[in-house]
Amino acid sequence: MAKPQLLFLFSFSLLCLISFSAADSSIIDDLRLAGSSFPSVHAKKLIRELNLFPKGEVNVVDEHRVSLPEGPKLVEKRFKFPTLEVPGGVSVEDLGHYAGYYKLPNSHDARMFYFFFESRNSKKDPVVIWLTGGPGCSSELALFYENGPFTIADNMSLVWNEYGWDKASNLLYVDQPIGTGFSYSSDRRDIRHNEDEVSNDLYDFLQAFFAEHPEFAKNDFFITGESYAGHYIPAFAARVHRGNKAKEGIHINLKGFAIGNGLTDPAIQYKAYTDYALDMGVIKKSDYDRINKLVPVCEMAIKLCGTDGTISCMASYFVCNNIFNGIMALAGDTNYYDVRKKCEGSLCYDFSNMESFLNKKSVRDALGVGNIDFVSCSPTVYQAMLVDWMRNLEVGIPVLLEDGIKLLVYAGEYDLICNWLGNSRWVHAMEWSGQKEFVASPEVPFIVDGAEAGVLKTHGALGFLKVHDAGHMVPMDQPKAALEMLKRWTKGTLSDASDSEKLVAEM
């Protein structure tokens, strides 16, 4: 047996032994009620809860089956979705919608799929890239259900989204890591396992994208996303910043990055699970006391993991997720993406229209994806990233803040799985030159249309926004507030009073 495998088995056995010695029998019973802790089971459960049924577990294809043409590294086409109604006289060129594939240079045979939607407002608007989490879920989830230009109606037609982020930005969606969505490879060695691989792929893609679209290269550039993208985003921002400093290729005008209900600093965020669950009435005080006995073991496991994604990180995944599983064993049918809601059986959200729409021949022909399957969420990609899961991605953020690159962390107040409390704690605990001032800064209401849509705290390059009446997917639950947040943040006016408040003050 190889040395890394022995190390993993030792670490896993030791941590499990300590974990179960720390837990009383009632916790163990609760964990049995929560079901299997195997990652493959977790991944498939996550997918079924969204009513998704991908044809395969990962987009690794037979190279002889691919019908896409060979050619330049980036192959892109303008397109119009066949069911999209556009005003008379608007051509495909005027629409400014693109779909394409980029052949990743640091891979055996990987191709990354993306959408690009020019701003409905102005081509001078910032370029914003969105990354969906999972890990292993397609960014088309956000495109059609959160902040994209349109939503899918029950009759499979597209309806323009009044609050799509393309109303304030030139908007990119990428299917990543490889094997997710329409992104694919013919070689399993291209499946990614850590943030270095993920961020390098995204950086290489950006270089090719801006070479193809030089008219957008000087626009302000912002990275956004949610959930497990709390890992992707800081790593990607650091990679772009590093590339700019080293004068690698095209300079990318990185101005900021935003993390929505993300997982960024697991040691702090896993410790917050029981506090949030107790505060929201998901568990009782007696449950809280019992489950909290696992917290010190989780903290020790994460310390063994460190920040470099070693094999011991996989052991910490098993140990620490016993905290969350213990809570959910007691939560019944509570929707952990939004504790106000209940799941019906195994169904928490119904995103099945996305798969039905993207599997239509007319749609696939419009996109130019050939016979590549659409893998909405990949259990294989999910499991491949387990060694990365417990890494602390907060450590690379202070350098970015010191260089004036803005960070906005926002979180819907009713999400349990990446809750606002854990996110607020790591943001406040982060050590940088403005930490004391940020901690001391007042919380102010975030006003949209004269009503409080959230509570905001800012200092310098850092902002934290707790969004009212929203769960895990803020742009889906509060689309108007989310668009207003994007507009103000990219313009540098997030903490300014709203226009109506200014008018009242002037009067």
UniProtKB/TrEMBL annotation:
Protein name per the record: Carboxypeptidase
Major subcellular site: secreted
Family that this chain belongs to: Belongs to the peptidase S10 family.
Classification lineage: Eukaryota, Viridiplantae, Streptophyta, Embryophyta, Tracheophyta
Signal peptide: 1-23
Keywords: Carboxypeptidase, Disulfide bond, Glycoprotein, Hydrolase, Protease, Secreted, Signal
Record-linked InterPro entries: AB_hydrolase_fold (IPR029058), Peptidase_S10 (IPR001563), Ser_caboxypep_his_AS (IPR033124), Ser_caboxypep_ser_AS (IPR018202)
Main function: Probable carboxypeptidase.
Broad class of enzyme this protein falls into: hydrolase
GO terms, molecular function: serine-type carboxypeptidase activity
Assigned GO CC terms: extracellular region; vacuole
Enzyme Commission code: 3.4.16.-
Subcellular locations according to the entry: Secreted
GO biological processes: proteolysis
Classification via Pfam families: Peptidase_S10
Organism domain of life: Eukaryota
Encoding gene per record: LOC107957407
